[in-house]
Amino acid sequence: MTSAYKAKICGTTNVEDAEMAAREGADFFGVVVEVDFSPRSLTIDAAKPLFSSPPLPPVALVYNMASTRVETLIQQLNPFAVQFLSLAEASFVTYLKNTYPRVEVWQSVHLPQAGETVDVENFQKTVQISVTAGVDALLFDTAALSKGEMKFGGTGVTSDWDIVKKLMDSMRGTVPIWLAGGINPDNVGEAIDKINPYGIDLCSGVEATRGKKDAAKLRSLMTTIRGKGLK
């Protein structure tokens, strides 16, 4: 039996952690590539070992990367998908889908952390633009201020799940929608029960230290995910 819910282990910095994610039953692993604010970021060259013979489909995460550099990344790493942490221009999404049809395009969309105001109408419009442009998946994540700098991805902070559910419900049936932001082994069951996402995407929630995964946390997480909605 397999779980009805997918799991992506993000912020992977080494081959050993990618293999660990595969052993524990994850579906994808993510690698942050040339993102200045991320302590888990790798250069394209440093990321090559993770993409050369991956144990799972690898996803390359980028933020405000120049279009020519994105193409270099695709050509050198051959990722399963490119995930944009910043909002990708609709025309560029369409271009990538036409030029590199074997590479999926995933778009992160960031909500403020719980307790902050959300412009629901504007958020829905932004998401719809991405869907119309042709993205293959959406990831609802949390933006958070850390040390005076706004960070997108790997924040370990949750947003308001009631609002997330409302937004996700309005977009169901368009593309697969993942939930990210502050997920860990202790709250993943609640997140699945409340939101019913296509999949769970997380990074810091299964780390031993920054950039290094914890086998026990990863096993606990995947045990819960596999136990939800078995088919």
From TrEMBL:
GO molecular function per UniProt: phosphoribosylanthranilate isomerase activity
Catalytic reactions on record: N-(5-phospho-beta-D-ribosyl)anthranilate = 1-(2-carboxyphenylamino)-1-deoxy-D-ribulose 5-phosphate
Keywords carried by this UniProt record: Amino-acid biosynthesis, Aromatic amino acid biosynthesis, Isomerase, Tryptophan biosynthesis
Pathway connected to this protein: Amino-acid biosynthesis; L-tryptophan biosynthesis; L-tryptophan from chorismate: step 3/5
CDD domains in the cross-refs: PRAI (cd00405)
One of the Pfam families matching this protein, by short name: PRAI
EC number: 5.3.1.24
Domain N-(5'phosphoribosyl) anthranilate isomerase (PRAI): 7-222
Signal peptide: none
GO process annotations (BP): L-tryptophan biosynthetic process
The organism's place on the tree of life at top rank: Bacteria
Keyword Amino-acid biosynthesis: yes
HAMAP family, per database record: PRAI
Family: Belongs to the TrpF family.
Designated name of the protein: N-(5'-phosphoribosyl)anthranilate isomerase
Organism: Desulfobacter latus
